[in-house]
Amino acid sequence: MEPPMTDRTPATFAAPDSAAIPLHIIDADATDTIPQSARAWAQASGFTGAAGAILLVPGADGAIAMALVGQGSAATRRRTRFVTATAARKLPAGTYAIASGLDGQALEDAALGWLLESYSFDRYTKPKPDAAQLVAPDGIDAPRIEAIAAGEALTRDLINTPTSDMSPADLEDAARSLARRHDARINVITGDDLLSSNFPMIHAVGRASATPPRLIDMSWGDTGPHLTLVGKGVCFDTGGLNIKPGSSMGLMKKDMGGAATVLGLARMIMALDLPLRLRVLIPAVENSISGNAFRPQDILTSRKGLTVEINNTDAEGRLVLADALALACEAETDLVISMATLTGAARVAVGPDLAPFFTDDDASAAALTAGAAQVADPVWRLPFHDPYEDMIEPGIADLDNAPSGGFAGSITAALFLRRFTDKPYIHFDIYGWNPQPKPARPKGGVGMGARAILAALPDLLKL
C-alpha cells in the first residue's frame, strides 16, 4: 500500500561533511570571482557563468575538486527565479557545499531552490537515481527551509496524484495523516450528513459522485491570533451537466489545487510551530454526472441563507467554497484566506506564474506583495470591484453562479465569495500547475502563494 502523501519523505539537506565538494556560484558579470586555481580550466572549457551552466573542475588526482555554477547576469536573474537550482539535478551524485558567490537572501533562495529542484513525483514510476545533496549553508535557517520545502512537496504530491488515487476520501486521508503528524484536531462531515449539518451547496455539487462529498475541518494551536484557511477540494471536475470538452477536462485532477495548497501551507505553519491558532476547511467533492446531478437553472439555498441560481454547473468551485466560508465566519477568526483553482479568467489575466489575490485591505495587500518579493513567490493584486456586483445578481435569486457576458470572470467569482464572508478576507485564484519545467519547479503540480502568505503572516496577524 502506498504511504499517505503526508508521509512521503521530502528532500532535506545533507549532514555536514568536511569532504563535501565546494560549489562556487559565479555571476556572468563577475567571472573574476572564479577561484584562481580553476580559471584556466574555466577559460579552456568556455565557462562564462551563464545561468544554469555547470563546470566540474578536476583535482590533481582526477576527482572533482570543485564545481562552478553559473547564475547568469543580473538581467537574467530578474527573469528567472531560483536560477542556480538546476545544479541539484545536473551535478553528479555526491555531497556539495556552497563555498562562495552568495549571501543573505540570495543564499537562502539558492538553498530552498535546491530542495525544490530535488522534488520528484515517482509514485507510479521507478525511483530516480540518487541525486546530488547539499549541505545546509552556514547562516541560513535550515529547519525553516526544510519545512517550507516539505510543505511544497506535499502540495505537489497531492495535485500530481490522479483522481483514481485522490478522491474526496483520499484527500480526507491525506488531511487526517497531516493532523496526526502535528497533533491537530480533525472532524469530517460526509454524504447526506452535509444536509442535516446545513452544507447544502457542498452536497449538491458532490452528490452525483460515487465517492460522497465531505467537509474536512482541521484545527491546530491553542493560543495566538486565529487564521482560517479554506481550500477548494474539487478532486475532479467534469463540468457536471455543462460538461467540459475533453481538451478542458485533461488537467482537472488539479482542481483540488486550492486544498493541496492550504494543506501544504498548514504543514509549514505547524512544523514551524508558529504562535497562532489555525483552522483548515476543505470542501472535498467530485463534480460528476449522474441522474441526481445538480442542473442548470436550479436554485440552491446556501448555508448563509443566500439563494444561488445555477447558470452553469461548471462554476461549482465557488458553490462549495461559499458554504465553507460561511462556516469560517461563524466562528472567531482574525483572518480568512481562501485558495482555489477557480477561474480560467485569472489565467488569461496573469498567466500561470502569478498568483492573483483579492483583498479590501491595503495593508494586507502590501504585506503580501512584500512577502512575495522576499521569497520569490510572485503574487498580483486584483480588485474587489464593487460596480460589478450587479453582474452576479440575476433577479430570480440572490446570486448568479455564472454571469453571462464573459467579462471580469475572476473578479465576479471573487465578489461572489465575498458575499459569504464578514471577517477580514483574502482570496487567491491560483492555477496550481507548472506547464513547462523551470528551475525549482518541474512540470506538474505546484504551490502558488503559500510561501508569500507564510512570509507575510507576521504583518497579517501581528505575530
Can you tell me about this structure?
It is a single chain. This protein has 463 residues and is an alpha/beta fold. The chain has 2 domains: 5-131, Leucine Aminopeptidase, subunit E, domain 1; 145-460, Aminopeptidase. 33% of the residues lie in helices and 20% in strands. Strands 6, 7, 8, 9, 10, 13, 14, 15 and 17 form a 9-stranded mixed β-sheet that branches. The mean pLDDT is 96.
Summarize the structure.
This protein has two domains: 5-131, Leucine Aminopeptidase, subunit E, domain 1; 145-460, Aminopeptidase (3-Layer(aba) Sandwich), CATH 3.40.630.10. The chain contains 15 helices and 19 strands.
| Low-pLDDT runs | none
Largest sheet: 9 strands, mixed
Indicate the CATH topology of the largest domain: Aminopeptidase
The CATH architecture of the largest domain comes to 3-Layer(aba) Sandwich
Pfam families: Peptidase_M17, Peptidase_M17_N_1
Family: Belongs to the peptidase M17 family.
GO biological process, one term: proteolysis
Protein name: Leucyl aminopeptidase
